[in-house]
Amino acid sequence: MTPACELSDLQQFRISSLPPDFYYIPNFLSVEEEASILQKIPAQRWVTLFRRRLQAHPSTLTKNNTLLGSPLPSYLVKPVVDRFEALQIFSHTPHKQPNHVLINEYKEGEGIMSHEDGNAYASVVATVSLGASICLEVAHKPAAMDREVSQQNAQTAGDSKLARDEVDRAGSESTISQYAVPARILQEPRSLLITTGPAYRDLLHGIDSVKVDEDLNPSTVANWDLLGDSTAFEKAGGRNERGTRISLTYRDVLKVSSAASKVLGGLGTR
Ligand SMILES: O=C(O)CCC(=O)C(=O)O
Ligand SMILES: [Fe+2]
Hints:
It comes from Lophiostoma macrostomum CBS 122681. This protein has nine helices and 15 strands. It has 270 residues and is an alpha+beta fold. A hairpin with a 2-residue loop joins strand 2 (47-49) and strand 3 (52-57). Residues 153-168 and 266-270 have low confidence and may be disordered.
């Protein structure tokens, strides 16, 4: 990506066969920038989970999904967040910039179960991939899960909001059914994947725990035409041998408590 890449350029990176909106930008970082970030990720911060390791910056959220506001470490800000600003990725979220980064590490054969990122965050996530390529699987939510979300909305926000959500949901479902889901997005090292809108709210995503992604070709990979180097996968017979892949997932947490309000006895969150 050239440093001058701007919002108007984002449309050319849209994955057009998928619901609005996924954007895939290959070579978002240079090889040198990737190496520099990788060597700054602190070794002592990892928490080992089932089939992956995780660290949260600046900290993990509280039980009620609140972030204790604090700056992100500078190696996660420069150059990545500056480039997000040029692309206006977070310009419509409450804090207008990411305030939280989850770093995931998957060794070969590891993955993450299909899930949604939920409503602790504004509905945009920007994922920088480092180290190795991996396939992200996207799928529709089972109907039961949609009902659960509607019930939670009814309990927390009242019936008029529920009615509004149902209208929104019906609208985006009819939009979504035109698209080729389930699907696979192939994420190369140094790429950026942006997930927003209905793609964030109405779909699940996960990574299969396999040592090799197989059968990679233009008809099985939704972002094939946007890949930085599709010939590498062609030459490998449509196979991607997994290595250790790290993802930086940038988000805007909605509820932030300032250090000052903690000092004053935790009065109020904002
Ligand atoms: O590593 C990825 O690309 C996905 C991670 C993810 O889904 C998450 O952290 O919520
Ligand atoms: Fe996720």
